[in-house]
């Protein structure tokens, strides 16, 4: 299997192909249907999946934690694609933060 970042890039390309501007068909694609309905549809899914992940963690159900994390990541990638962003940009941001104290990093943000 290729690297995780390669897989994320392939998935991002697939999601991008489902955008209305790229001919995504809401009749035949779940992602195209979300995109067609607009941000509220996929943002609701991000919120639902985040809540389901929290509940799986509270139950310490490892299989559900993995499944719900996958659902959350997937719907987060749908959001990234809608806004013309790529998972590589998220990976770059995570790499930038590596070795930086979380407290220091948070304090450096413009809020």
If you had to describe this structure to a student in words, what would you say it looks like?
- This protein has 111 residues and is an all-alpha fold.
- The chain has one domain (4-108): MazG-like (Helix Hairpins).
- Helices cover 73% and strands 0% of the residues.
- It has helices spanning 4-17, 30-37, 39-58, 62-82, 87-97, 102-108.
- Helix 3 runs antiparallel to helix 4 (62-82).
- It is globular.
- It starts with a helix and ends with a helix.
Distance between the termini: 40 Å
Q: How do the SSEs run, as a string of H and E?
A: HHHHHH
Task: Give the name of the CATH architecture.
Answer: Orthogonal Bundle
What fraction of residues sit in β-strands?
A: under 5%
Low-pLDDT windows of residues: none
Number of strands: 0
Put simply, the count of helices is 6
The averaged pLDDT comes out at: 92
Count of discrete structural domains = 1
